[in-house]
């Protein structure tokens, strides 16, 4: 019986590389503006000026935060009619945000 419990414990352990990867994602989301950007992009693709206007944050700050989200491959950018249009790359971010909101609920 002891052997079975050891096998279960090993499956629950997280490998160091996986933990480091997940920590990078959490670091990328660990900024109020970036979290708000991700929440907005979960509703649909949009351009940087629309993000800045919707969030009431200056466009240069939005661009800086989007760069960090792009570096962690959480969002991507494409050009449409000369505008940079951003989109969520990882569709499970929406579920993660809902989970985080639930954790903070009173």
- CATH structural class: Mainly Alpha
Stretches with pLDDT under 50, minimum 5 residues: none
Number of strands: 3
Mean of residue pLDDT values: 88
Rg over C-alpha atoms, rounded to the nearest angstrom: 18 Å
Output the CATH topology: Arc Repressor Mutant, subunit A
The CATH architecture can be given as Orthogonal Bundle
Strands side by side in the biggest sheet: 1-3-2
What's the story with the biggest beta sheet?
A: 3 strands, antiparallel
| The CATH superfamily title | Winged helix-like DNA-binding domain superfamily/Winged helix DNA-binding domain
Distance between the termini: 41 Å
| Percentage of β-strand residues | 5-15%
What class, by secondary structure content? alpha+beta
Tell me the number of helical segments per DSSP (H or I, 4 or more residues long).
6
Number of separate structural domains: 1
**What proportion of the residues is helical, as a percent range?**
55-70%
Quick synopsis:
The protein is α+β, with helices and mostly antiparallel strands. The protein is built from six helices and three strands; from the N terminus they run αααβααββα. It is globular, with a radius of gyration of 18 Å.
Protein architecture, described:
This protein is α+β, with helices and mostly antiparallel strands and 106 residues long. It has a single domain (2-103), classed as Arc Repressor Mutant, subunit A (Orthogonal Bundle). Helices cover 63% and strands 13% of the residues. It has 6 helices and 3 strands. It has helices at residues 2-12, 16-29, 32-41, 48-55, 59-71, 93-103; strands at residues 46-47, 75-80, 83-88. Helix 4 packs across helix 5. 14% of the residues are buried. The model has no long low-confidence stretch (mean pLDDT 88).
